[in-house]
Fold this sequence. Notes:
Number of helices of chain A: 14
Structural class of chain A: mainly alpha
Strand content of chain A: under 5%
Helix content of chain B: 25-40%
CATH class of the largest domain in chain B: Alpha Beta
Oligomer: heterodimer
CATH architecture of the largest domain in chain B: 3-Layer(aba) Sandwich
Number of domains of chain B: 2
Number of strands of chain B: 13
Largest sheet of chain B: 6 strands, mixed
Amino acid sequence: MSQVLSHTWALTVSRMRLAMRNRAFLFFSLIMPIAFLFIYAGIFGRGRTQAVPYLLAEVLALTVMGSFWGLSVQLVTFREQGILRRFRVTPVGASAMLASSLVSNYFLTLPTIAVEFFLSRSVFHMAGLGNLLSIFVLVTIGTVTFASLGLIVASVTNTMQETQIINQIIWFVFLFISGATIPFPMLPSMVQAVAVFLPATYLVSGLQRAMIDHTNLPNLGMYLASLGGCALIAFVISAQLFRWEPESKAPRQAKLWAAAAVIPFLLLGVWETVNGDLRVHAMKNLQSIREPYSIERIDH
Amino acid sequence: MLTGATIEVVNLMKRYGSVEALRGVSFAVNEGEVFGLLGPNGAGKTSTVEILEGLRTPDSGSVSVCGLDPQTSGAEYKYIMGAALQATALPDKMRVAEALDLFGSFYPKRRGTEELLGRFGLVEKRSAFYSQLSGGQKQRLALAMALVNDPQVVFLDEPTAGLDPQVRREIYDIIEELKKEKKTILITTHYIEEAEKLCDRVAIVDHGQVIALGSPRELKQRSGSVTRITVRMTKPETNGALGKLEGVTECRAEADDYLLYSTRVPRTIVALVKHLEEQNNELVSLEISAPSLEDIFLELTGRRLRD
């Protein structure tokens, strides 16, 4: 076990270094989320201070969801170029290789999150910070979950091209029907009915509630448990389906296995449909944009 | 299985779809020996070595290395084994010293990065990205990485393939150095020169089978008392006439040369000179040499290695 941890750590450090040297990675994980913040808060928020927490929650969600691309794509490249097979003749196992994707991605995401908070305060004069503990836990579990979902796509696809196409499709679904771009209450009710089965929806909703209502951890328990459960299943399946060799193909039933990762959200979606309050919270949060804060900021 | 050999390969079979890559490969390598698998591309060398490295599973047959089964021994086996694979790479933006540090960190027993950099002539390239290295430098790094855990057994799969002759000789020098450390080394190659120069013993592999096995000297002796006579004439000749000369067992034309394999060299030369006089032809050059492994391969398979 300690071997797995030390291998994971060595790989994490190495992969973080590689990512920092990759311009495309820096652009997508740092520049783009911050650009989103300026577009959201500057244009959609029209510079109004009370709109910033809502919009920051969306930007945080987008940043966390970006882990979906993260380092799982790097792993496919490693496999295609025969890099993984070099690791295979060492004592490194699939779990250490996969875990290093999650951990390095997490450490690379945190600074972006911090910069987004800092800019929201300094440039857009956001008043409060929300429930920081809830936000931190949501960001942590969310980052691991979305990175795990990326790993599962990487483990069931055979080429970089296939990975990119499937990633794009899933990414667009996450982006547009989760509330991360178009506010949830503005989605048609049929789309909302689908959205309650998506992990992204709960990430967005959770972050908004923690930012705006200062919702504490126990009240986000269902969301966190589903995100965590999804991450765990996705990780275990990815490790089972892990392939080192460029020419080895994913077995046909692999895509079915992969679908198991969404089970927690099927359950949560059903529960939400029957007696959930997601819509109520979403509406309330959206209204926060228009309401003035109870504690007025003294603007200079 | 219990013959005390460091590497034991018994009756390996491997099939990829309709292609039979291995059709009963067997051999044993002793401790401290440099053993070569020599054969053309597609002969089954890489399949054999990748089974030994634990990268592939055989359809049947068995392998053991230092008494361990590469398939099932896990990390215990990885600790004592080093490998330079054929189709592999490192991330483009990984630096040379970083690669040695990273791979070294996976093992409880390891060689220092500085020592390896010095030994493999990579000190000046320590901060270079993998993508900036030449073919020869990449190969030297691959060899350094194969030794990072100070293994007992080293597998080198085509260590000089695609390198130009000068760089190839540099790699030979490095492998010669390793020989002095008494490591057990298995090399696959399709270069005769490499096998002759480096290996204590060689198994000639063709179509998934070992067709000859022994030291380079033994293999050459096994071809009987056949000697190669390489002749060049001012005018071209027909193979048929030369092949009928006294003592000649086989005749082949190769570029401007004719290779005569003879069991009775003096008689053949007398007959050759007489024949050329009759034909009004003249000798440009004549060379008598012991058969090389290339000749042995030709004799055994009827093909040249590089065909």
